[in-house]
Each structure stands twice: as C-alpha cells, then as structure tokens.
C-alpha cells in the first residue's frame, strides 16, 4: 500500500510540472493578453500600455516568466491576481466555499434521489415508473440549464414570488434560513441534470449485479428480497458509483458555470470565466494547478475507496 | 459649510419638474414657491435606506490610479473626490478645491503656465486624518512615480515646481500650456498620503480597502458578488442621503434585467438594459426607464495606410453606400442618434453644421466611376492593379454589430466593393492588431474625449500613430497637417472661444477627409425603481453612479 502511494505521488509530481508548462504556454501564447482590455479606454496610448506591460513583467521572454512563476510557487507564493491584486489563493478561497455550498447541496440531492430512482427503475424494470424515469432523464438531460434556470426564475420569482431570483443571500441578512431559501432554486436546477445522470448509472449498475450468480445464491438460501437488495446488490452496485463520485471531485473547482451565472452565485465557475476573460494569468494558472491536483487526489481516493469496499481489489 | 456649488447638487427629478410645470401652468403654484424648492421632494436630513446598483462587470480595482476599467470608476466616484468635478452640463464644479482655477479668477496665469489651487479647510479622510495640500501633491507625484503602476501620466508629466504654500493652498507650474489639464484633474481622485507611508504603493493595503474623502466609506467586499459602502456622515458636500450603497455584480445582461424586474436591484448600472428589451422595459410598473445618449461614437474605420483607402473619393463613395438609418432602425431598435463627427452632440464643442450624410448608392457608383475605379471581370472595382477589396474586423460575439457588418457588406457589394468579414476575440482584436494598425477596416465604438475636454490629439494628431512610432492611438494612420495644427492650437489656449473655433474647424476637416465613417452615437437604456431620486446621466463621465452621494429615496 505504501509503495503504491509513493509511486503514485512521484508520477503525480511529474504530471503536475508538465501540466503547468503546457498551461502556461497556451495561456501566454494566445494573442491579446491582460492589457488589451484597456486599449479602448479614452486617452490610452501605446506607450502607456507598454509601460504598464513592462512594470508587470509581461515584456520578458516566456521561459523567464515561467521560471519565475515556478520558483515562486515552490516557495508557496502563488502570485497575485492581475484584477484585484489579491493573493491567488485568497481569491480562489473566497469563491471556493460558495461553490462548495452549491455543489455540495446539489450533489447530495442528486445522489440521494438519483440512487433510489435508479434502484427502483432496475428492480421494477419495464414498469410505468421505469419508463417515466427513463423519459424524465432524457428530458432533464436535454434541457439547457440556462433556459431551465430562467424559466424557474420566471415562474417562482417573477410570477409567484415564492423564491428569490438569485444571489447567495440577502445583503445585510445572511442567516442560515436566508442562505437556505436562496439555495433552493439553484441547487435543484443543478441537481436535475445530475439526478438524471446518477439514476441512469445506478439503474445499469443494479441490473448488472442482479443477474449475477451470488444474488441467486443469496435468494436460494432464503434471504428476503429486501435483505438481498440492501446487503448484496446495493453494496456491489455502489462500487462504480464511488469511482464516479471521486472523478467528480475536480469538477467542483470548475464550478457550475451556467447555474452560477443565471443565479448570480459567486462561485468558481464564474471566477474561472472572468479570470480567463481578463487574462488574469496568475489566477488561471492557480486554478489549473489546483484542479490538476484535485484530479489526481480524486483518482487516488477513488482507487483506495474501491479497494476498501471491494476485497477482490488489492493495491500494490 | 458654504454652499457654493448649488447648481450641480440641485437636482429635481424629471417627474417632479413635469408635475410642477403642469401645476404652475394651471396657476396652482405661486411662482415664488419655485425658488424655495418647497414643492420638491426633499432629501432626508439623515442618511436613510440603501440602494443596490447592478453592474454587469465586477469592480476590482479600488486604487483609482492603477490600471482599471470603467466599472471600477463607479466605486471611485463614491469613495473619493477630485479637486473639482464635471457636471452633467459639462461645467466644472468645485469639490476638494474651493474654486475651479481659471484665467479669470487668477488660478491659472494668462500664459497657462502657473497654477494656484485653493483647497477646502476642515475636510477629513474616512479614517479621521485631516486632508491637506500635501495629499494633493502626493497624488500627482504618485501618478508619475516610475515605480508605480500608474494608470495615466498625460498632463501630470508636465507638472513641476509643486509647492505646498499652506495646508489649503498649492501652487505648481506646467512645462508647457496644456488646456486639457483641468479635465484631467477633474478625473484625478485625490488619495491620502498617509496610506502609502513607507510601503510599495503597488501592494499597499489601501488598494483593497480604500480610504477617501467622498460621500461613502469602504465597508465590505464579497469577491465575485458585491461591494458595500456606508454613508460618510462627515462628508463636506451635499449628502450622502443613503445609509448604504451596494454595488452588485451580475455577469449576465439577461439576468441583470430580470433582477431589475423582480426588484432585487434598484438601479441598472453599466451595460444597462439591452436595446431589444426597451419596448418592454419602458412600460414596467414601478420603474423609470429612459434612453440616455453616451459619448461613444460607432464608426466604420479605415486603415489609411492601405492602398485601397488612399483615394478620398473611395471613402466618400463608401459613405454614400452606407445605409446608416436602416442599421439604426432595424438592428439597434432606433435608439442611437446618427452623427457626422467624433464629438458627442452634448459637448459645447459640437459642430452642428456639418454636411448631413445621405444614403445614395447611385451617387456612390458614379463617384467611383469618376475616380477611375472600374469593375473588373469578377464585378469588383479596381484601379491601377488595386482591387477595392478589404477585410473588416470587430469583436467576435458582439451579435448586433456582426449583423450590421453583414448588412454593410451587402451594401458595399452592390456598388462593386468586396468587404470580407474577419472577426476576432476581444483580447486579440484590441491588442496589437488594432494598436499597430494591422487591420484593413474595423467597426468600432470609441469615446474620443477624456472627460469633457474636446482635445482628441491622442486619436487624430499626425504624431499619434503607434505604427509609425508615435505615442497615441491614431490607428487610422490619419495624417493631415492641418489637423495637427488645429489640435495644437486648441490644446494650448485657455480661452474658451478660441478653443471652440479650433475644434469646430477640426470637425469640418475630419468630416471632409473621412478617415472613419461616423455612424451613430451610442444610446443606452437605463432604468431605476420609481422613488430613487437624483439619478442624473452625465455624458462627461464613464459611469452612472458619479453622483451617488445625492441619490435618495422619495417615499
């Protein structure tokens, strides 16, 4: 186990360096850059732009810029955002928890509902419920989130006035209840698609397990349907789900761009898009590195979790 | 406190004025009452309530002297004061200075070289420190400090011999007379010297927790979401009448409008309501929505370095072939105002007597025929081996403008001119491609003025061509010696009448030369809840909340 971990760690570090080189090159080689947004400012001159570029160190050769960024990173300095001059980790941190709140709530909802819809669909295969769930999932997957979010706002905020039209909390309030009320619409809109995805996966996984020999054996030795479902089928069907959940971890850094935009939720998706739009290289690089790290951790954790649940798999 | 700048603060709402006009016409209000203002909604004696302003971009730069975009200025105007401001009529009104320096009041010497600024006494920074002439001196020095990521040096670079005579008086000299300097000072927010003591100004804590003298104080920022400012109860000017102002970042224009409809935001700020929503928005109950002109002028701009555009007849012909009115009506919902010049029509220097544009494709064709541009085998006109074919670029993703381009493309094709469209993402478009004149032609919206000053040397002077090593943004590569002379003349005199003559003539010359085909002046659809009073559009500044200190709720 330990040897496995060390091997993985070593591979990961090499991978991270490669990711950073490619990311840095692609970002900087794309034409434009952080100063082009100032070009159409009244009174802006090429000389003034060149001066600012020089002060920001943007006029140095790319390898030099990369090396400086890299050595600083090794010392724990992620740099400062070009936009608001705050340390990169502070910028990311301030958006991270908004995303965790939204994605966490929504993932919880979608896993809970999705799992059971999938299980019911599998054990009552070809029933009305199963058909309804299948069609429902298709519809949910096909509706663009943007449109669905706007419809929800139109219905529940503009027409009925039940729920706020967006935002994470009422400025000046910020109580738990206030957050909860604001969470309802975005988390459900976001969950809708994921429920569809999870239920499909779960249905397939349960069907897979149900036809295996050990299930028949369990039934044959006199266990009730319910006991077989809970103890044997579910436990086995959940193994691929855990891998999936682990692989979903890095998407948290990407945030839920569309949902965040429609509901003006100050999360990671918007941070990423805004930082790209402003060519805020330090923040984009920070996000890139962190998501690469999360991808690696997510994979590793999924491997370990599967090994714990499934005794047939041994790491090493 | 002496109330020596009443005009700019005295802002009855339009609705109130209309009511009053109606009432007095019917003889119900004694004329004498008007002067006392008794019939106007009075602002509260204590700051009350809050206003939420929605912006579609996020303000992130709070040091007004570091590189920033226009939305950041919304925060700057709330927190800081310049020495004097430009009001909605384009007139200077004193702020931190007690009077606007001019040749008449002796603040500026006749030759424009010696300046004297008198400052208010008793003004305090938000942290309680007294404001003095040292702060003004520091601000101007910071702007030209080579170690500081300064936003703008023009004008400030000319300042020398700055002397603090007393805490309320400052004198300095200019190396050469520079008429736009008052306008530049009106956009220069004064920052506190003590906040930068012994630290790198680029990373001062001040930059993320600004301290000003303005009507509102920094309270809180939630990155990616909003900024809260609290009333500065010791403010020296009128106001603030609101306890709190909240700038809310709403990145999508559809969502911005929706939140305006639901009442989540009180005022729709920068990027405003999209023109296609105007018809619906103007009838929304409980909201005031109006079309407000902006200083930005949309044009089809030529790169005069290209052989296709050397012949003035070609540029004139293309202007005749441009169906402006259809573009405005069909694509922009009829909201923008057609224009013939780069000067905003609200400016005192606007030349209203320029020849009016006519859409006349036949005239365009005959002009080209006359000039010897004959259609070749493919129907495209050519002369001396030069084909009248060129590319046109603009920001990819600006859908209305892209449609306008396609429309223009068709109009030009009808007269035998081949314009192909090649659009680029904003970061590429306005980078070197634009700055170093690597385009054939572009569709672009430019605010030519700095504040309210008519000086456009930066854009039109023959010495401002970056592609030829000039410092400026004359990306048309437009070289006309007369233009250079007129700009010099207008930029060095402080006598308004002389200045006006120079800029009026300048507009005539540019209209004749047509380095760009002026299309229209932008119109924005702005809105706020009924009851928010004091929201006054000002074409001389870049942001809506320039006068937020005097906004209040009329309940």
From TrEMBL, chain A:
Its main location: membrane. It is found in: Cell membrane. It comes from the Bacteria. Residues 96-302 form the ABC transmembrane type-1 domain. The keyword Transmembrane applies. Gene3D superfamilies: MetI-like. The chain crosses the membrane at residues 12-30, 96-119, 131-156, 176-197, 238-263, 283-309. Keywords: Cell membrane, Membrane, Transmembrane, Transmembrane helix, Transport. It is a multi-pass membrane protein. Belongs to the binding-protein-dependent transport system permease family. This is ABC transporter permease. The lineage of its organism: Bacteria, Pseudomonadati, Pseudomonadota, Alphaproteobacteria, Hyphomicrobiales.
Automatic annotation (TrEMBL), chain B:
InterPro entries: Peptide/Ni-bd, SBP_5, SBP_5_dom, TAT_signal. It is found in: Periplasm. Gene3D superfamilies: Dipeptide-binding Protein, Domain 1 (3.90.76.10), Dipeptide-binding Protein, Domain 3 (3.10.105.10), Periplasmic binding protein-like II (3.40.190.10). Keywords: Signal. SUPFAM superfamilies: Periplasmic binding protein-like II (SSF53850). Pfam families: SBP_bac_5 (PF00496). It comes from the Bacteria. The keyword Glycoprotein does not apply. Residues 91-459 form the Solute-binding protein family domain. This is Peptide ABC transporter substrate-binding protein. It comes from Jiella sonneratiae.
């Amino acid at each position: 186990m330990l040897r496995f971990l060390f091997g993985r760690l070593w591979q990961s570090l090499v991978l991270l360096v490669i990711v950073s080189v490619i990311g840095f090159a692609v970002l900087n080689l794309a034409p434009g850059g952080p100063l082009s947004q100032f070009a159409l400012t009244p009174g802006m001159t090429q000389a003034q732009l060149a001066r600012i570029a020089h002060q920001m160190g943007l006029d140095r050769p790319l390898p030099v810029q990369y090396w400086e960024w890299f050595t600083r990173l090794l010392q724990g300095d992620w740099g400062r955002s070009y936009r608001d001059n705050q340390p990169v980790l502070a910028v990311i941190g301030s958006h991270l928890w908004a995303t965790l709140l939204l994605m966490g709530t929504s993932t919880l909802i979608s896993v809970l509902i999705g799992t059971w819809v999938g299980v019911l669909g599998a054990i009552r295969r070809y029933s009305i419920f199963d058909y309804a769930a299948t069609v429902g999932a298709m519809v949910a997957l096909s509706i663009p989130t943007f449109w669905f979010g706007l419809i929800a706002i139109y219905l529940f905020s503009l027409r009925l006035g039940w729920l706020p039209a967006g935002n994470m909390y009422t400025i000046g309030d910020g109580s738990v209840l206030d957050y909860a009320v604001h969470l309802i619409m975005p988390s459900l809109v976001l969950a809708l698609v994921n429920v569809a995805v999870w239920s499909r996966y779960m249905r397939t996984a349960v069907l897979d397990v149900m036809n295996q020999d050990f299930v028949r054996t369990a039934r044959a030795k006199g266990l009730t349907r319910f006991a077989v479902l809970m103890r044997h089928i579910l436990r086995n069907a959940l193994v691929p789900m855990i891998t999936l959940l682990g692989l979903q971890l890095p998407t948290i850094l990407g945030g839920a761009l569309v949902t965040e935009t429609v509901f003006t939720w100050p999360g990671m998706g918007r941070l990423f898009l805004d930082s790209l739009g402003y060519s805020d290289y330090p923040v984009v690089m920070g996000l890139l590195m962190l998501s690469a790290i999360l991808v690696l951790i997510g994979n590793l954790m999924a491997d370990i979790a599967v090994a714990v649940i499934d005794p047939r798999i041994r790491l090493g | 406190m002496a109330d020596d700048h009443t005009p700019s603060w005295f802002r009855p709402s339009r609705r109130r004025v209309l009511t009053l006009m109606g009432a007095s016409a019917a003889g119900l209000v004694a004329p004498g009452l008007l002067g006392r203002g008794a019939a106007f909604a009075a602002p509260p004696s204590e700051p009350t309530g809050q206003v939420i302003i929605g912006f579609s971009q996020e303000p992130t730069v709070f040091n007004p002297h570091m590189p920033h975009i226009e939305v950041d200025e919304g925060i700057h105007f709330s927190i800081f004061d310049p020495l004097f401001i430009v009001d909605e009529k384009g007139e200077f009104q004193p702020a931190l200075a007690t009077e606007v320096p001019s040749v008449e009041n002796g603040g500026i010497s006749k030759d424009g070289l010696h300046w004297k600024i008198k400052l208010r006494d008793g003004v305090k920074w938000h942290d309680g420190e007294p404001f003095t002439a040292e702060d003004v001196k520091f601000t101007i020095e910071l702007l030209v400090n080579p170690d500081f990521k300064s936003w703008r040096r023009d004008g400030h670079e000319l300042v020398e011999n700055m002397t603090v005579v007393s805490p309320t008086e400052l004198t300095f000299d200019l190396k050469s007379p520079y008429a736009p300097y008052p306008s530049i000072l009106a956009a220069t927010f004064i920052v506190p010297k003590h906040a930068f003591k012994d630290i790198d100004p680029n990373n001062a804590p001040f930059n993320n927790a600004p301290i000003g003298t303005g009507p509102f104080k920094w309270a809180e920022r939630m990155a990616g979401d909003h900024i809260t400012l609290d009333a500065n109860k010791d403010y020296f000017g009128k106001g603030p009448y609101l306890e709190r102002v909240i700038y809310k970042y709403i990145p999508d224009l559809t969502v911005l409008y929706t939140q305006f409809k639901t009442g989540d935001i009180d005022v729709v700020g920068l990027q405003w309501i999209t023109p296609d929503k105007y018809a619906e928005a103007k009838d929304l109950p409980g909201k005031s929505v109006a079309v407000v002109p902006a200083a930005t002028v949309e044009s089809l701009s030529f790169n005069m370095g290209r052989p296709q555009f050397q012949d003035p007849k070609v540029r004139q012909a293309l202007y005749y072939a441009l169906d402006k009115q259809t573009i405005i009506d069909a694509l922009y919902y009829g909201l923008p105002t057609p224009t013939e010049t780069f000067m905003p029509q609200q400016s005192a220097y606007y030349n209203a007597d320029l020849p009016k544009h006519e859409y006349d494709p036949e005239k365009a064709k005959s002009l080209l025929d006359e000039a010897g541009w004959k259609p070749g085998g493919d129907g495209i006109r050519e002369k001396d081996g030069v084909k009248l074919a060129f590319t046109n670029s603009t920001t990819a993703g600006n859908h209305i403008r892209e449609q306008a381009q396609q429309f223009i493309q068709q109009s030009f094709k009808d007269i035998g001119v081949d314009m192909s469209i090649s659009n680029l993402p904003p970061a590429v478009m306005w980078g070197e491609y634009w700055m170093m004149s690597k385009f054939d032609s572009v569709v672009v919206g430019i605010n030519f003025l700095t504040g309210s000053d008519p000086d456009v040397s930066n854009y039109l002077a023959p010495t401002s061509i970056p592609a030829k090593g000039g410092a400026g943004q004359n990306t048309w590569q437009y070289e006309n010696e007369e233009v250079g002379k007129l700009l010099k003349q207008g930029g060095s005199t402080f006598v308004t009448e002389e200045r006006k003559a120079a800029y009026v003539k300048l507009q005539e010359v540019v209209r004749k030369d047509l380095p760009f085909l002026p299309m229209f002046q932008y119109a924005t659809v702005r809105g706020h809840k009924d009851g928010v009073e004091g929201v006054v559009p000002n074409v001389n500044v870049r942001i809506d909340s320039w006068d937020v200190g005097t906004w209040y709720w009329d309940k």
